[in-house]
Amino acid sequence: MAGVEVRLPAARERLAQGLPRGAGEGGRDLVAPGDTITTDPGYMRGHGTYMGNEKLVASVAGVVDRVNKLVCVKALKTRYNGEVGDIVVGRITEVQQKRWKVETNSRLDSVLLLSSMNLPGGELRRRSAEDELAMRDYLQEGDLISAEVQAVFSDGAVSLHTRSLKYGKLAQGVLVQVSPSLVKRQKTHFHDLPCGASVILGNNGFIWIYPTPGQKDEEAGGFVTNLEPVPLPDREVISRLRNCILALVAQKLMLYDTSIVYCYEASLSHQIKDLLKAEVMEEVVLQTRQRLLELEG
Amino acid sequence: MRGSRSKALHDQALVNCQYSMATFSTGDRKRRPHGDRQSSEMTLHLKQTFEAAILTQLYPRSQIDIYVQILQADGGNYCASVNAATLAVIDAGIPMRDYVCACSAGFIEETPLADLNYVEEVTGGPQLALALLPKSDQIALLEMNARLHEDHLERIIEAASKACKDVYAVLDQVVREHLQEVTALLGK
Protein backbone atom coordinates (compact mmCIF):
# COMPACT_ATOMS: atom_id res chain seq x y z
CA MET A 1 0.00 0.00 0.00
CA ALA A 2 3.00 2.27 -0.46
CA GLY A 3 1.66 4.15 -3.44
CA VAL A 4 -1.66 5.22 -2.02
CA GLU A 5 -2.08 8.95 -1.88
CA VAL A 6 -4.44 10.36 0.70
CA ARG A 7 -5.78 13.86 0.49
CA LEU A 8 -7.85 15.92 2.83
CA PRO A 9 -10.60 18.09 1.48
CA ALA A 10 -9.33 21.59 0.80
CA ALA A 11 -11.08 24.81 0.00
CA ARG A 12 -11.60 25.21 -3.71
CA GLU A 13 -9.40 27.81 -5.23
CA ARG A 14 -10.98 30.70 -7.05
CA LEU A 15 -10.55 29.83 -10.70
CA ALA A 16 -10.79 33.18 -12.38
CA GLN A 17 -8.11 34.86 -10.32
CA GLY A 18 -5.59 34.50 -13.10
CA LEU A 19 -7.94 35.53 -15.86
CA PRO A 20 -8.52 39.10 -16.91
CA ARG A 21 -11.29 40.47 -14.75
CA GLY A 22 -12.69 42.88 -17.30
CA ALA A 23 -13.58 40.07 -19.70
CA GLY A 24 -16.75 39.19 -17.85
CA GLU A 25 -17.94 42.70 -17.24
CA GLY A 26 -17.69 44.63 -20.47
CA GLY A 27 -21.20 45.27 -21.70
CA ARG A 28 -22.80 42.21 -20.17
CA ASP A 29 -25.01 42.40 -17.11
CA LEU A 30 -24.82 39.80 -14.42
CA VAL A 31 -27.89 39.60 -12.23
CA ALA A 32 -28.95 37.66 -9.17
CA PRO A 33 -32.52 36.74 -8.17
CA GLY A 34 -34.49 39.79 -7.09
CA ASP A 35 -32.42 42.28 -9.10
CA THR A 36 -34.39 44.80 -11.09
CA ILE A 37 -33.41 44.59 -14.74
CA THR A 38 -35.46 47.50 -16.04
CA THR A 39 -38.36 49.68 -14.99
CA ASP A 40 -39.23 50.47 -18.59
CA PRO A 41 -42.65 48.90 -19.33
CA GLY A 42 -41.78 48.56 -23.04
CA TYR A 43 -39.78 45.38 -22.56
CA MET A 44 -41.10 41.88 -22.89
CA ARG A 45 -40.69 39.32 -20.15
CA GLY A 46 -38.57 36.29 -21.16
CA HIS A 47 -37.27 33.25 -19.35
CA GLY A 48 -35.64 33.85 -15.99
CA THR A 49 -37.57 37.03 -15.27
CA TYR A 50 -40.88 38.02 -13.74
CA MET A 51 -42.94 41.19 -13.35
CA GLY A 52 -43.07 42.63 -9.87
CA ASN A 53 -44.50 46.09 -9.16
CA GLU A 54 -44.32 47.01 -12.84
CA LYS A 55 -40.61 46.27 -12.85
CA LEU A 56 -38.85 43.52 -14.70
CA VAL A 57 -37.05 41.45 -12.08
CA ALA A 58 -34.56 38.59 -12.52
CA SER A 59 -35.51 35.25 -10.98
CA VAL A 60 -32.28 33.36 -11.58
CA ALA A 61 -28.61 34.22 -11.28
CA GLY A 62 -27.07 34.62 -14.70
CA VAL A 63 -26.40 36.75 -17.73
CA VAL A 64 -29.00 39.13 -19.17
CA ASP A 65 -29.76 38.42 -22.79
CA ARG A 66 -31.59 41.09 -24.76
CA VAL A 67 -33.09 40.38 -28.16
CA ASN A 68 -34.83 43.52 -29.40
CA LYS A 69 -37.55 44.03 -26.78
CA LEU A 70 -37.31 40.60 -25.22
CA VAL A 71 -35.29 40.27 -22.03
CA CYS A 72 -34.16 36.85 -20.82
CA VAL A 73 -31.79 35.79 -18.08
CA LYS A 74 -29.73 32.72 -18.84
CA ALA A 75 -28.79 30.80 -15.72
CA LEU A 76 -25.32 29.28 -15.59
CA LYS A 77 -26.59 25.85 -14.71
CA THR A 78 -30.02 24.43 -15.27
CA ARG A 79 -31.68 21.19 -16.12
CA TYR A 80 -31.93 20.38 -19.79
CA ASN A 81 -34.45 22.35 -21.83
CA GLY A 82 -35.28 20.30 -24.90
CA GLU A 83 -35.27 21.79 -28.37
CA VAL A 84 -36.41 20.02 -31.51
CA GLY A 85 -33.47 18.43 -33.31
CA ASP A 86 -31.23 18.11 -30.27
CA ILE A 87 -29.28 14.92 -29.82
CA VAL A 88 -29.64 13.41 -26.39
CA VAL A 89 -28.38 10.41 -24.52
CA GLY A 90 -30.84 9.02 -22.01
CA ARG A 91 -31.60 6.14 -19.75
CA ILE A 92 -34.81 4.10 -19.84
CA THR A 93 -36.58 4.31 -16.51
CA GLU A 94 -39.93 2.73 -17.26
CA VAL A 95 -41.66 0.62 -19.88
CA GLN A 96 -45.29 1.62 -20.39
CA GLN A 97 -48.08 1.09 -22.90
CA LYS A 98 -46.57 1.80 -26.33
CA ARG A 99 -43.91 4.05 -24.83
CA TRP A 100 -40.76 4.17 -22.79
CA LYS A 101 -40.02 6.76 -20.17
CA VAL A 102 -36.50 8.12 -20.56
CA GLU A 103 -34.45 10.04 -18.03
CA THR A 104 -32.69 12.84 -19.93
CA ASN A 105 -31.79 15.29 -17.17
CA SER A 106 -34.79 17.44 -18.01
CA ARG A 107 -37.45 18.48 -15.49
CA LEU A 108 -39.94 15.87 -16.57
CA ASP A 109 -39.28 12.41 -17.91
CA SER A 110 -39.03 12.23 -21.69
CA VAL A 111 -41.00 9.73 -23.72
CA LEU A 112 -39.93 7.49 -26.55
CA LEU A 113 -42.96 6.17 -28.41
CA LEU A 114 -42.91 2.69 -29.86
CA SER A 115 -44.08 4.22 -33.13
CA SER A 116 -41.15 6.60 -33.29
CA MET A 117 -38.41 4.07 -33.54
CA ASN A 118 -37.03 1.78 -36.19
CA LEU A 119 -37.95 -1.80 -35.61
CA PRO A 120 -36.19 -4.67 -37.31
CA GLY A 121 -37.91 -5.52 -40.57
CA GLY A 122 -38.17 -2.30 -42.49
CA GLU A 123 -39.30 1.25 -42.10
CA LEU A 124 -42.96 0.99 -42.83
CA ARG A 125 -44.00 -1.82 -40.62
CA ARG A 126 -47.20 -1.65 -38.69
CA ARG A 127 -46.73 -1.81 -34.96
CA SER A 128 -48.69 -4.84 -33.93
CA ALA A 129 -49.80 -6.04 -30.56
CA GLU A 130 -46.88 -8.48 -30.58
CA ASP A 131 -44.48 -5.57 -30.87
CA GLU A 132 -46.11 -4.02 -27.86
CA LEU A 133 -45.62 -7.18 -25.87
CA ALA A 134 -42.02 -7.49 -26.97
CA MET A 135 -41.11 -3.93 -25.99
CA ARG A 136 -38.97 -5.07 -23.10
CA ASP A 137 -36.90 -7.17 -25.52
CA TYR A 138 -35.88 -4.04 -27.41
CA LEU A 139 -35.28 -1.71 -24.49
CA GLN A 140 -35.29 -2.54 -20.82
CA GLU A 141 -35.20 -0.41 -17.71
CA GLY A 142 -31.66 0.84 -17.25
CA ASP A 143 -30.66 0.72 -20.91
CA LEU A 144 -28.95 3.73 -22.41
CA ILE A 145 -30.07 5.11 -25.74
CA SER A 146 -29.10 7.91 -28.06
CA ALA A 147 -32.00 9.71 -29.68
CA GLU A 148 -33.15 12.94 -31.24
CA VAL A 149 -35.77 15.32 -29.87
CA GLN A 150 -38.85 15.05 -32.02
CA ALA A 151 -41.19 17.41 -30.20
CA VAL A 152 -41.43 19.45 -27.04
CA PHE A 153 -44.76 19.49 -25.21
CA SER A 154 -46.25 22.60 -23.66
CA ASP A 155 -45.16 21.62 -20.15
CA GLY A 156 -41.55 21.21 -21.30
CA ALA A 157 -41.54 17.42 -21.54
CA VAL A 158 -39.70 16.02 -24.51
CA SER A 159 -40.69 13.38 -27.03
CA LEU A 160 -37.80 11.48 -28.61
CA HIS A 161 -37.35 9.47 -31.77
CA THR A 162 -34.71 7.02 -32.96
CA ARG A 163 -35.76 6.85 -36.60
CA SER A 164 -32.28 6.82 -38.00
CA LEU A 165 -29.52 4.31 -38.05
CA LYS A 166 -27.36 6.71 -36.04
CA TYR A 167 -29.53 6.37 -32.95
CA GLY A 168 -30.42 3.40 -30.84
CA LYS A 169 -29.29 1.42 -27.89
CA LEU A 170 -25.82 2.04 -26.52
CA ALA A 171 -23.74 -0.99 -25.70
CA GLN A 172 -20.33 -0.71 -24.07
CA GLY A 173 -18.77 2.52 -22.98
CA VAL A 174 -18.66 5.15 -20.28
CA LEU A 175 -21.29 7.76 -19.46
CA VAL A 176 -20.24 11.14 -18.09
CA GLN A 177 -22.90 13.52 -16.83
CA VAL A 178 -22.11 17.22 -17.08
CA SER A 179 -24.06 20.44 -17.04
CA PRO A 180 -25.99 20.85 -20.32
CA SER A 181 -24.75 24.42 -20.65
CA LEU A 182 -21.19 23.17 -21.12
CA VAL A 183 -21.97 21.23 -24.30
CA LYS A 184 -21.42 23.42 -27.33
CA ARG A 185 -24.10 23.23 -29.99
CA GLN A 186 -22.66 21.98 -33.23
CA LYS A 187 -23.59 20.52 -36.58
CA THR A 188 -22.75 17.04 -35.41
CA HIS A 189 -22.60 15.59 -31.95
CA PHE A 190 -21.21 12.20 -32.96
CA HIS A 191 -17.45 12.30 -33.18
CA ASP A 192 -14.88 9.62 -33.99
CA LEU A 193 -11.82 11.03 -32.28
CA PRO A 194 -8.35 10.40 -33.72
CA CYS A 195 -7.23 8.89 -30.43
CA GLY A 196 -9.21 5.75 -31.11
CA ALA A 197 -12.52 6.26 -29.35
CA SER A 198 -15.81 7.90 -30.22
CA VAL A 199 -17.98 10.26 -28.24
CA ILE A 200 -21.62 11.28 -28.37
CA LEU A 201 -21.98 14.74 -26.87
CA GLY A 202 -25.64 14.79 -25.89
CA ASN A 203 -27.16 18.26 -25.75
CA ASN A 204 -28.61 17.26 -22.40
CA GLY A 205 -25.16 16.98 -20.87
CA PHE A 206 -24.94 13.20 -21.03
CA ILE A 207 -21.73 12.23 -22.78
CA TRP A 208 -21.18 8.71 -24.03
CA ILE A 209 -17.62 7.55 -24.72
CA TYR A 210 -17.29 4.25 -26.54
CA PRO A 211 -14.78 2.34 -28.64
CA THR A 212 -15.01 3.28 -32.32
CA PRO A 213 -17.08 0.54 -33.97
CA GLY A 214 -15.31 -1.60 -36.55
CA GLN A 215 -17.74 -1.50 -39.47
CA LYS A 216 -19.97 1.50 -39.73
CA ASP A 217 -23.05 -0.33 -40.95
CA GLU A 218 -22.90 -2.70 -38.05
CA GLU A 219 -24.21 -0.29 -35.45
CA ALA A 220 -27.28 0.18 -37.64
CA GLY A 221 -29.47 1.74 -35.00
CA GLY A 222 -29.83 -1.76 -33.75
CA PHE A 223 -31.03 -3.10 -30.52
CA VAL A 224 -28.54 -5.92 -30.62
CA THR A 225 -25.56 -5.01 -28.51
CA ASN A 226 -22.01 -6.06 -29.10
CA LEU A 227 -20.79 -7.56 -25.86
CA GLU A 228 -17.33 -8.65 -26.92
CA PRO A 229 -14.63 -7.60 -24.47
CA VAL A 230 -13.07 -4.26 -25.31
CA PRO A 231 -9.27 -4.52 -25.57
CA LEU A 232 -7.23 -2.89 -22.81
CA PRO A 233 -5.67 -0.08 -24.92
CA ASP A 234 -9.17 1.05 -25.97
CA ARG A 235 -10.31 1.04 -22.38
CA GLU A 236 -7.33 3.15 -21.39
CA VAL A 237 -8.16 5.68 -24.09
CA ILE A 238 -11.75 5.78 -22.89
CA SER A 239 -10.81 6.34 -19.26
CA ARG A 240 -8.34 9.03 -20.22
CA LEU A 241 -11.02 10.76 -22.26
CA ARG A 242 -13.39 10.54 -19.34
CA ASN A 243 -10.89 12.15 -16.98
CA CYS A 244 -10.15 14.83 -19.58
CA ILE A 245 -13.84 15.66 -19.84
CA LEU A 246 -14.06 15.87 -16.06
CA ALA A 247 -11.09 18.24 -16.04
CA LEU A 248 -12.64 20.45 -18.73
CA VAL A 249 -15.88 20.54 -16.76
CA ALA A 250 -14.13 21.39 -13.50
CA GLN A 251 -12.41 24.32 -15.22
CA LYS A 252 -15.59 25.31 -17.11
CA LEU A 253 -14.36 24.96 -20.66
CA MET A 254 -16.96 24.32 -23.34
CA LEU A 255 -17.05 20.74 -24.58
CA TYR A 256 -16.75 20.04 -28.31
CA ASP A 257 -14.57 17.81 -30.43
CA THR A 258 -11.59 20.18 -30.69
CA SER A 259 -11.44 21.01 -26.99
CA ILE A 260 -11.63 17.34 -26.06
CA VAL A 261 -8.93 16.32 -28.56
CA TYR A 262 -6.62 19.13 -27.40
CA CYS A 263 -7.17 18.25 -23.77
CA TYR A 264 -6.48 14.60 -24.53
CA GLU A 265 -3.22 15.51 -26.23
CA ALA A 266 -2.19 17.81 -23.40
CA SER A 267 -2.91 15.06 -20.89
CA LEU A 268 -0.64 12.47 -22.53
CA SER A 269 2.31 13.46 -20.33
CA HIS A 270 0.37 12.45 -17.20
CA GLN A 271 -0.86 9.14 -15.92
CA ILE A 272 -4.58 8.57 -16.33
CA LYS A 273 -5.29 8.48 -12.63
CA ASP A 274 -3.28 11.66 -11.99
CA LEU A 275 -5.73 13.56 -14.18
CA LEU A 276 -8.18 13.53 -11.30
CA LYS A 277 -5.91 15.72 -9.18
CA ALA A 278 -6.92 19.36 -9.07
CA GLU A 279 -3.50 20.76 -9.92
CA VAL A 280 -3.02 18.44 -12.90
CA MET A 281 -6.51 19.29 -14.18
CA GLU A 282 -5.67 22.96 -13.98
CA GLU A 283 -2.40 22.56 -15.84
CA VAL A 284 -3.86 20.40 -18.61
CA VAL A 285 -6.84 22.65 -19.16
CA LEU A 286 -4.65 25.74 -19.18
CA GLN A 287 -2.63 24.22 -22.02
CA THR A 288 -5.86 23.35 -23.83
CA ARG A 289 -7.15 26.89 -23.42
CA GLN A 290 -3.89 28.26 -24.78
CA ARG A 291 -4.04 26.06 -27.87
CA LEU A 292 -7.66 26.93 -28.52
CA LEU A 293 -6.81 30.63 -28.31
CA GLU A 294 -3.94 30.13 -30.77
CA LEU A 295 -6.30 28.30 -33.09
CA GLU A 296 -8.72 31.20 -33.05
CA GLY A 297 -5.77 33.50 -33.73
CA MET B 1 -41.49 13.14 -9.94
CA ARG B 2 -40.35 10.62 -7.40
CA GLY B 3 -42.49 8.42 -5.25
CA SER B 4 -46.23 8.48 -5.48
CA ARG B 5 -47.33 10.15 -8.66
CA SER B 6 -50.63 11.14 -7.10
CA LYS B 7 -48.81 13.78 -5.09
CA ALA B 8 -47.80 15.61 -8.27
CA LEU B 9 -49.52 18.93 -8.68
CA HIS B 10 -50.86 19.63 -12.12
CA ASP B 11 -50.34 23.38 -12.01
CA GLN B 12 -47.16 23.86 -10.02
CA ALA B 13 -44.04 22.16 -8.76
CA LEU B 14 -44.05 20.32 -5.49
CA VAL B 15 -41.45 21.50 -2.99
CA ASN B 16 -40.24 18.59 -0.94
CA CYS B 17 -37.98 19.31 2.01
CA GLN B 18 -36.25 17.00 4.41
CA TYR B 19 -34.46 18.21 7.49
CA SER B 20 -32.30 15.94 9.57
CA MET B 21 -29.59 16.20 12.18
CA ALA B 22 -26.51 14.01 12.25
CA THR B 23 -26.08 11.90 15.38
CA PHE B 24 -22.87 13.73 16.19
CA SER B 25 -24.24 17.22 15.60
CA THR B 26 -25.21 17.94 19.19
CA GLY B 27 -23.40 17.66 22.48
CA ASP B 28 -25.19 14.48 23.51
CA ARG B 29 -25.08 11.76 20.91
CA LYS B 30 -28.62 11.01 19.88
CA ARG B 31 -29.82 8.68 17.18
CA ARG B 32 -32.83 9.92 15.28
CA PRO B 33 -33.46 7.24 12.69
CA HIS B 34 -36.74 8.60 11.35
CA GLY B 35 -36.49 12.13 12.64
CA ASP B 36 -38.24 13.44 15.69
CA ARG B 37 -41.09 15.85 16.17
CA GLN B 38 -38.72 18.79 16.09
CA SER B 39 -37.25 17.92 12.73
CA SER B 40 -40.59 17.23 11.09
CA GLU B 41 -41.68 20.67 12.25
CA MET B 42 -38.52 22.12 10.77
CA THR B 43 -39.20 20.27 7.51
CA LEU B 44 -42.60 21.91 7.35
CA HIS B 45 -41.16 25.35 8.00
CA LEU B 46 -38.55 24.94 5.30
CA LYS B 47 -41.23 23.83 2.88
CA GLN B 48 -43.38 26.87 3.64
CA THR B 49 -40.43 29.21 3.30
CA PHE B 50 -39.38 27.93 -0.08
CA GLU B 51 -42.87 27.63 -1.46
CA ALA B 52 -43.13 31.35 -0.81
CA ALA B 53 -39.90 32.12 -2.63
CA ILE B 54 -39.67 29.69 -5.54
CA LEU B 55 -41.76 30.41 -8.63
CA THR B 56 -43.35 26.99 -8.50
CA GLN B 57 -46.06 27.70 -11.06
CA LEU B 58 -43.44 27.56 -13.84
CA TYR B 59 -42.88 23.83 -13.50
CA PRO B 60 -46.11 21.88 -13.32
CA ARG B 61 -46.03 18.16 -12.54
CA SER B 62 -42.47 18.26 -11.25
CA GLN B 63 -40.82 18.16 -7.87
CA ILE B 64 -38.04 20.14 -6.20
CA ASP B 65 -36.17 18.31 -3.45
CA ILE B 66 -34.36 20.22 -0.73
CA TYR B 67 -32.45 18.03 1.67
CA VAL B 68 -30.73 19.63 4.64
CA GLN B 69 -28.59 17.87 7.20
CA ILE B 70 -27.15 19.62 10.21
CA LEU B 71 -23.61 18.47 10.88
CA GLN B 72 -22.90 20.70 13.83
CA ALA B 73 -25.65 22.39 15.78
CA ASP B 74 -24.81 25.56 17.62
CA GLY B 75 -28.06 27.46 17.45
CA GLY B 76 -29.90 28.97 14.51
CA ASN B 77 -30.43 25.63 12.77
CA TYR B 78 -33.47 26.79 10.84
CA CYS B 79 -31.76 29.98 9.72
CA ALA B 80 -28.58 28.27 8.59
CA SER B 81 -30.65 25.71 6.68
CA VAL B 82 -32.60 28.41 4.89
CA ASN B 83 -29.51 30.40 3.96
CA ALA B 84 -27.71 27.31 2.68
CA ALA B 85 -30.73 26.09 0.76
CA THR B 86 -31.14 29.51 -0.89
CA LEU B 87 -27.64 29.27 -2.28
CA ALA B 88 -28.29 25.72 -3.44
CA VAL B 89 -31.51 26.71 -5.21
CA ILE B 90 -29.78 29.64 -6.92
CA ASP B 91 -26.94 27.38 -7.99
CA ALA B 92 -29.42 24.90 -9.44
CA GLY B 93 -30.89 27.69 -11.59
CA ILE B 94 -34.36 27.40 -10.10
CA PRO B 95 -36.28 30.67 -10.48
CA MET B 96 -37.02 32.50 -7.24
CA ARG B 97 -38.72 35.76 -6.44
CA ASP B 98 -35.74 36.84 -4.39
CA TYR B 99 -33.12 35.43 -2.07
CA VAL B 100 -34.55 34.10 1.18
CA CYS B 101 -32.43 35.08 4.15
CA ALA B 102 -33.17 33.97 7.65
CA CYS B 103 -31.96 34.92 11.07
CA SER B 104 -33.04 34.25 14.63
CA ALA B 105 -33.40 36.83 17.36
CA GLY B 106 -33.99 36.69 21.09
CA PHE B 107 -34.76 38.97 23.94
CA ILE B 108 -32.53 38.64 26.97
CA GLU B 109 -32.32 41.12 29.81
CA GLU B 110 -34.27 43.79 27.99
CA THR B 111 -31.98 43.68 24.97
CA PRO B 112 -32.80 42.23 21.56
CA LEU B 113 -30.13 39.82 20.37
CA ALA B 114 -29.74 38.73 16.77
CA ASP B 115 -28.43 35.34 15.66
CA LEU B 116 -28.56 33.35 18.88
CA ASN B 117 -26.07 30.62 19.58
CA TYR B 118 -26.85 27.38 21.40
CA VAL B 119 -26.22 28.71 24.90
CA GLU B 120 -28.43 31.72 24.29
CA GLU B 121 -31.15 29.49 22.86
CA VAL B 122 -31.31 27.14 25.84
CA THR B 123 -31.51 29.94 28.42
CA GLY B 124 -35.19 29.89 27.62
CA GLY B 125 -35.94 33.48 26.75
CA PRO B 126 -38.34 34.30 23.95
CA GLN B 127 -36.88 33.74 20.51
CA LEU B 128 -38.05 34.25 17.01
CA ALA B 129 -37.00 33.03 13.59
CA LEU B 130 -37.51 35.30 10.64
CA ALA B 131 -37.14 34.46 6.95
CA LEU B 132 -37.13 37.53 4.78
CA LEU B 133 -37.16 38.32 1.06
CA PRO B 134 -34.78 41.23 1.56
CA LYS B 135 -35.28 43.19 -1.67
CA SER B 136 -39.02 43.52 -1.25
CA ASP B 137 -39.01 43.36 2.56
CA GLN B 138 -41.57 40.56 2.52
CA ILE B 139 -41.68 38.02 5.27
CA ALA B 140 -41.59 34.40 4.13
CA LEU B 141 -41.83 32.94 7.61
CA LEU B 142 -42.02 34.33 11.12
CA GLU B 143 -42.09 32.07 14.08
CA MET B 144 -42.01 32.87 17.76
CA ASN B 145 -41.75 30.28 20.52
CA ALA B 146 -42.73 32.20 23.65
CA ARG B 147 -44.82 35.08 24.83
CA LEU B 148 -43.39 38.54 24.52
CA HIS B 149 -44.84 41.92 25.32
CA GLU B 150 -46.09 43.68 22.27
CA ASP B 151 -43.91 46.72 22.97
CA HIS B 152 -40.76 44.68 22.52
CA LEU B 153 -41.86 42.91 19.36
CA GLU B 154 -40.95 45.71 17.02
CA ARG B 155 -37.42 45.99 18.34
CA ILE B 156 -36.76 42.29 18.11
CA ILE B 157 -38.12 42.06 14.57
CA GLU B 158 -36.02 45.06 13.72
CA ALA B 159 -32.91 43.30 15.01
CA ALA B 160 -33.75 40.10 13.10
CA SER B 161 -34.47 41.84 9.82
CA LYS B 162 -31.30 43.88 10.07
CA ALA B 163 -29.38 40.63 10.52
CA CYS B 164 -31.21 39.08 7.57
CA LYS B 165 -30.11 41.95 5.37
CA ASP B 166 -26.55 41.51 6.53
CA VAL B 167 -26.78 37.85 5.60
CA TYR B 168 -28.19 38.90 2.24
CA ALA B 169 -25.17 41.12 1.58
CA VAL B 170 -22.83 38.21 2.22
CA LEU B 171 -24.80 35.73 0.10
CA ASP B 172 -25.16 38.21 -2.74
CA GLN B 173 -21.46 38.90 -2.82
CA VAL B 174 -20.65 35.19 -3.04
CA VAL B 175 -23.18 34.63 -5.83
CA ARG B 176 -21.86 37.56 -7.82
CA GLU B 177 -18.25 36.49 -7.46
CA HIS B 178 -19.19 33.01 -8.63
CA LEU B 179 -21.13 34.40 -11.58
CA GLN B 180 -18.27 36.62 -12.62
CA GLU B 181 -15.81 33.79 -12.33
CA VAL B 182 -17.80 31.33 -14.38
CA THR B 183 -18.77 33.78 -17.13
CA ALA B 184 -15.14 34.83 -17.43
CA LEU B 185 -14.06 31.20 -17.74
CA LEU B 186 -16.74 30.33 -20.24
CA GLY B 187 -15.73 33.45 -22.14
CA LYS B 188 -19.02 33.65 -23.96
From TrEMBL, chain A:
| Name of one Pfam family that matches | KH_6
- Primary residence: nucleus
Q: Where is this region: Disordered?
A: 17-38
Keyword Transferase found: no
Tell me which InterPro entries the record gives: Exosome_cplx_N_dom, Exosome_RNA_bind1/RRP40/RRP4, KH_dom_type_1, KH_dom_type_1_sf, NA-bd_OB-fold, S1_RRP4
List, for all copies, the residue spans of the domain called RRP4 S1.
79-150
User: Which residue ranges does the record assign to the K Homology domain?
Assistant: 173-212
Q: Does the keyword Ribonucleoprotein apply?
A: no
Keywords, in A-Z order: Exosome, RNA-binding
State its location(s). Answer: Nucleus
The record places domain Exosome complex component N-terminal at 30-67
Give the protein family.
Belongs to the RRP4 family.
The protein's name is Exosome complex component RRP4
Q: Tell me what organism the protein belongs to.
A: Gekko japonicus (Schlegel's Japanese gecko)
TrEMBL record, chain B:
What Pfam families does the record point to?
RNase_PH (PF01138), RNase_PH_C (PF03725)
* The organism's taxonomic lineage, starting at the top: Eukaryota, Metazoa, Chordata, Craniata, Vertebrata
Q: Which family does it belong to?
A: Belongs to the RNase PH family.
The residues covered by the Exoribonuclease phosphorolytic domain are 11-95, 98-163
PANTHER family named in the record: EXOSOME COMPLEX COMPONENT (PTHR11953), EXOSOME COMPLEX COMPONENT RRP41 (PTHR11953:SF0)
Spans through the membrane:
none
UniProt-listed InterPro entries: ExoRNase_PH_dom1, ExoRNase_PH_dom2, ExoRNase_PH_dom2_sf, PNPase/RNase_PH_dom_sf, Ribosomal_Su5_D2-typ_SF, RNase_PH
| Entry protein name | Exosome complex component RRP41
Q: Which CDD domains match?
A: RNase_PH_RRP41
Species for this entry: Gekko japonicus
Source species, domain of life? Eukaryota
